[in-house]
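Lecture notes, part 5. Sequence design as translation. It can be helpful to think of inverse folding as translation between two languages: the language of shapes and the language of residues. The source text, in structure tokens, appears below.
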């Protein structure tokens, strides 16, 4: 499995794989990434996208959550239906590293013990 930032070339394939319709959610998350306020991360399996999520560097999407928590938010974490039976990594905890470069530990198939991997996420200083 390859986990990487979304690219402009990925958008049509993502929309075909998991249509979002008029809101064009994939394109909106990619636009936030281009603007530097988010990272739209896609998990790719051999046959296509397996899941996605967004790190919102500018904080939570919902105002009530924003009022209660200061810091980045992992938003829209999802696993595409065809990949739900495979070994897709799910978050082990809901805490994001401080703004900048960090790491988020994840465990396969929702396990909280046993083998795990760490996904490194970050934001360039540009």
């Amino acid at each position: 499995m390859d986990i990487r930032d979304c690219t402009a070339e990925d958008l049509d394939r993502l929309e075909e794989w998991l249509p979002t319709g008029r809101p064009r959610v994939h394109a909106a998350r990619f636009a936030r990434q281009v603007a530097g306020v988010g990272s739209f991360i896609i998990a790719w399996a051999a046959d296509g996208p397996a899941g996605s999520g967004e790190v919102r560097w500018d904080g939570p999407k919902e105002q009530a959550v924003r009022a209660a928590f200061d810091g980045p938010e992992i938003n829209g974490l999802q696993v595409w239906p065809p990949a739900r039976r495979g070994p897709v990594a799910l978050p082990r905890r809901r805490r994001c590293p401080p703004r900048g470069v960090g790491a988020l530990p994840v465990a396969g198939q929702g396990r909280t013990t046993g083998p795990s991997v760490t996904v490194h996420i970050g934001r360039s200083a540009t």
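The translated text above is only one of many valid answers, since several sequences can fold into similar shapes. The mean pLDDT is 75.
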